[in-house]
Structure formats: structure tokens, C-alpha cells
Amino acid sequence: MATTTAAIPVRATRSYRPIWAWYAALVVLMAWGLAAWIDELRYGLAATGMRDVVSWGMYIFTFAFFIGLSAGGLIMASSAEVFGIKALKPLSRLGVLSAAACVAVAALMIIPDLGQPFRVGNIFIHPNWTSPLIWDILIITVYFVFSIVDLYVLQRHAAEPSRWKTVARVMAYVGLPTAILLHSVTAWIFGLQIARSWWNTSLMAPLFVVSAVLSGTALVTLLALCAQRFGKVELSQETRKWLRGFIVISLFVDLFFVGADYITVLWGNVPADRSALNLVLPGGPWAWLFWIEWIVGGVIPLAFLLVPRLKKMPGALGLAAFLVIVGVYAFRIELVVLGFVNPLTQFPPGNAVGTYNVQTSSFQLIGRYHPTWVELGIVIGLVALFAALITIGYRALHVMEPSPAAGHRHARMPAETKASS
Amino acid sequence: MAAKKTSIPHHVMVIDTNRCVGCWSCAIACKQVNNEPLGYFWNRVLTTAPNQSTTAKAPASNNMDVPWGTYPDCELAYLPVACQQCNDAPCVKVCPVQATFRRDDGTVLIDYNRCIGCRYCMAACPYGVRIFNWGDSNYAPGGVVGYGKEYSTEDRLVFTPERPKGVVEKCTFCVERIDVGELPFCVEACPLGARIFGDLNDPDSQVSKLVNNGGGEQLHPELGTDPNVYYLPVARRVPGES
Ligand code: SF4
Ligand code: SF4
Questions:
Q1: What CATH number should be reported for the domain holding residue A365?
Q2: In this complex, do B123 and A340 lie within 8 Å of one another by their Cβ atoms?
């Protein structure tokens, strides 16, 4: 690590100190998350905002979100190889690194959600193979191991391209279906449930795959732009064009799928489906999700990616990528929480909440949910862990290639490339 | 199969909605025998209209005991709902660790020692009857302790006197009572005899007659969960007609 920074005399002093401030900030946030988790262990899940009507909350939608983020990297790395997109090859290792980090953080996100976290071993002792959750844990494990191995292979491939070429190709071909399977199985945790009409659609798996490609590509774009800002790499126009194309197409498909689902529910007008959708349409209590999804994460990024004048602005791509990620997060909230807010049996007084409060009823007909500081703390701590994994991985492995135009033959450190060219 | 029929009963409950007056005695009895803390209801009585077994239209009000319709054409009925003890239970299918299991008599139970508290079963249950123990139990002062012992069946712990933190629970059909030939406590507590419990394998039992010939209906039959709780619809709509 030290050699990288030392090798570039001009930037050395400028990039050395901020990195430790960055690490320090991340450590503080992770410590906060750990403290929040210890608090939760003491008081139980009563420390969260979840109750019996909305019984899954921030942990689960952030889990689904991180699973989605992990897609882009691997799909991009694999399609660079499978479809021979040269301009994306320089991002391969960064993509696979972000896939590994995202899926690890997603898996950790489940632990604080458990009421009995120390019994998590039961999953391996008494697996129930009819449960989508078991299949998801299996595919998450496979995916994590795969991305670590893939990272190693790409690392070796960068060093000795001729020897590792075939292996890298095989990994790319395996990677694509693995990524699609991961998102489908995660979607089926929700999509197979007959109890929640909001979830119970065969569109769920395709929707998860496309929103995963969308948010994952946006994440890799952001990371690559960060690398360009703080590292010594340059993204070529060609690479930017491909990233923009990936985001635009997957954003269109994503909005199309969500819109198609809305139309189906609106036209059918089945009470159980309608009452869930009404909550999120303009005028409903959850309409802010609709606006974030369609305007902040839909129309605005499309404008910044497509309108020629806006497209040329510096930072347009980064801004669009960031907004897209915000939009996908809103979609995850909408998906998970609204499935619960509106229980199938809609007779008063509703479902028991599971807590007693002098002022309010112990029943809710329409569920309510606000995350508490404990949930926010744990999620922020895990996001900090993700940032730390990416930073360390980036610096230790030199996953970005200095000059994308040169392709994958020139790997290693910027200093070396400079010397050789 | 014939031998099995005589040895293992098939426990079902029939609820006569024509007799139910919405007094919540069963819900309170359930709280007492199972020592459910404040805010917990394994069993609850929903306000509905006669012959409204599913949500075909929006309820009359968000408050309980509000009749449907406009005066003077008002209708009111009650739907007591606890775990429906589904034969094809979504909660059993989704539990990742087989903590929720179905006994051969049809009761669906939870192994308190195995449940990891993932709450997937709560997401999967169509009837909203599963209750998670979020934190330390908050008991009313001098609350009744009820059964007050641990109970295990098939070597699995399915009842404890205090609600165990971090696991999911629900109606057990009072497994500790029915295993010694007693009735579930809500059946005993109902002042109007609206709850009938028995063995569906016995063709002469009252429940068999009601389920087979008396018009017993399941809740949300379209979901295919095949519950072991049946509801007798309100037969007559005009007050005064016998
Ligand atoms: S009613 Fe719900 S908790 Fe009870 S058996 Fe059916 S799915 Fe499971
Ligand atoms: S909360 Fe417990 S009973 Fe329910 S699915 Fe998870 S492990 Fe099974």
C-alpha cells in the first residue's frame, strides 16, 4: 500500500493523509454500528421499529438492496468477457471486488435481524429445503466464494494473461448465470408468498435481476469515478459510454416492469392489490417512495444520461448513478414494507402489534414502520464496513487498470505503466 | 391407514359465527392460559358482516364493533381468528430450520429451542396470527400465569410458562391440554358454545358432522392452505327469523 502512494511523488503527500482520516471515520461508524448491535442484543428486537404487522424492516430491505448491488459488478465483468466488450474490461476486477464486498455485507445484514442470532448454526444443522431462505443462503455462499476465486483469477490473468486466459473465460461464463440465480432466488423469498399479494407475482425475479443490474452498474460507475478522482486512473470515453448505456437500458426496463405491474393492479382492481398500491401512489401515505423512484431515480437520471446538454456537464454520469442507486433503494423499501403494511385479512381491529402502549391501540389494520436509531446505526456501520472493504481491496489489489484504452495487458501499478510506456 | 385412523386423531375446530357475539372471552382466555403479555393476542375477534369470509370489499370502519351498512339496514358479525392450523401450512414450508412443524394430528407447533427468530413464517402466514416476542415480556401486575409449565411433544419444546424472547409463537390448539384429553381453553371459555373441538377422523363426532354436512367453511380456501379451523356461516340474515 505504502509503495503505491510513495511511487507517485507529486500526489504522495496529498493522498496519504486523507486516507487515514477516511479509515478513521469508517472505524468510528463501524464502532457505532457494533454498539447499536450490542444494544439490540440486550433489549432484543424490541429495540427496532419492527412489530408484528410490519415484521421485516430496514435490515431486510437493505439486505435485498446489497444483494442487488452485488450484481452489477459481476455481470459487468462477465459480460465484458462473454460479449467481448473491450471498454468494460478495465472495470472487471473492480466489479468483482464490489460484488464480493456487497454480498458479504448483505449476508451480515441478516444477523442483526434474527431474534436468536446465536442459533444461526441451525440453518446448517436442520436445513429445510422447501424454504427459499435456505436456497438463498446457499446461493449467497456460492456467489461469495465464486467472486473471491474470480478476483484471484482476474488478478493472475492481469499478471500473466496468456496462462490464465481460459480460466478467466470459464469464470466469466459461470459468473453470469450465478449472478442471475442469486437475484432470482432472493426475489423468490418474496415472490413465492401467497400471503402477500403485493409480492406474489412472477414478475418478481425478472424485476430483481434488472434492478440489480441497474443499481450494480451504477455502483461500479460511482466507484470507478471515485477511483478516477482519488486514484490515478482515467476512464476512457468509450468506458463511460458503455456504463451510460448499461444504466439507461436497465433503467428503462426496470421502470417498464414496475409500470407494467402497476397497470395490472390498477386495471384488475382487486381490493387486496389495490389497497396496497394506493398506499404508494400519489396521495397515499407512502407516496414519497413513488416520487423518489420515478422522478429522483427515474426521470432526472435519464435526463442527465440522455439530454445532450446535460450529458456533457462534468459529474453528470456520477450524479445520475447516485440518483439511480437512491431510486433502487426506494424501490426496495416499497417492495418489502408495503407487503406487510396491508395484511390480507382486512377486518377491524386488525392484527395485534405485540407491544403495549397506553395511548395507542394494540392492533393495527394498516401497519406502521419507522426504523429506530439501533437499526440505522447497524445499517450505517455495515455500509462503513462495505466502504472499508472496497478501499482496502482497491489499494491492496490495484484492481483498477491505469489506462483503460490500453486494455488488460498493462496491469499493475500506475508507476510501472508510466515507466514502461 | 385404517389403523392410523383409529390411533391418531385429526384435531379440528369449528367456529359457529352465528353464535359468536364478539365478547372476546376466547381471546382473553387464550391470554390467560398462555400467559400472553400486554399487547399480545394469539387469538383475536374481528368485526365483519355476515357471510363475509374474505375481503371482498372494504370494512365498514377501522374500528371494531361498527356494523356494516347504513341505518336501519345494518349487519354485524364476528370472526374469531387464531392460527388456522393449516394442513399445507406456508409457515412450515418457509421455516429455514424446521422449527415450525406439523404433528400428525394436524397441529402446527413451534420448537422454541430451534427457532432462530427470522420471522419468515410471519411473512408467509396469510392469516396474520403469528406473534413474535420482541423483547422482555411486559406483564400486567398480578396477571394470571395459566398453564405454568413447560410442555414438549415429539421431543421438542413447544410451550414455556413465560414467553421466550426472540422466537415466534402462535396458537398451539392448547396442545398440552388436548394431549391429555381436555379441550382447548378458548373452547371451554366461550359462553355461547360457538367453538366446537373434536376429531375429524371419527365420523360420529360433532365436528365431522359440521364439517361434512353442516356447511363448515375454511378461511381463504382459495389459497390452498387447507386449514383445520372451519367456520359455520351466519345462516340467517333477517333478525327475528329462527
Ligand atoms: S394459520 Fe398461519 S401460522 Fe397457522 S398454520 Fe396456517 S400459516 Fe401457519
Ligand atoms: S421465526 Fe422461527 S419458526 Fe419462524 S421461520 Fe424463522 S426459524 Fe422458523
A1: 1.20.1630.10
A2: yes
Residue A1 covered by a domain: no
**Domain of A130?**
22-407
CB < 8 Å from A in window 211-240 of B: 219-220, 223-225
Interface test mutation site (partner B, options A43, A53, A55, A368, max chain B beta carbons within 10 A) = A55
pTM, two decimals, is 0.91
Q: Is the CB of B110 under 6 A from ligand 2?
A: yes
Q: Give, in degrees to the nearest 5, the angle at Cα A190 between B82 and A340.
A: 50
Pairs across A and B, CB distance < 8 A? 194
- Chain B residue at shortest CA distance from A343: B128
CB-CB under 8 Å, A348 with B118: no
Our count of domains for chain A comes to 1
Domain ranges in chain B are 2-232
How confident is the model over B71-121, as pLDDT tens digits? 898 989 999 999 999 999 999 999 999 999 999 999 999 999 999 999 999
Residues B80-106: b if buried by 16+ CB within 10 A, e if exposed: bbbbbbbbebbbbbbbbbbbbbbbebb
C-alpha cell at A196: 402477500
CATH number of this structure's domain B2-232:
3.30.70.20
Whether residue A347 lies within 8 A of chain B, CB to CB, comes out as yes
Q: How large is the ipTM?
A: 0.90
| Spatial distance between the Cα atoms of B215 and B210, rounded to a whole number of angstroms | 6
CB B232 within 8 A of CB B16: yes
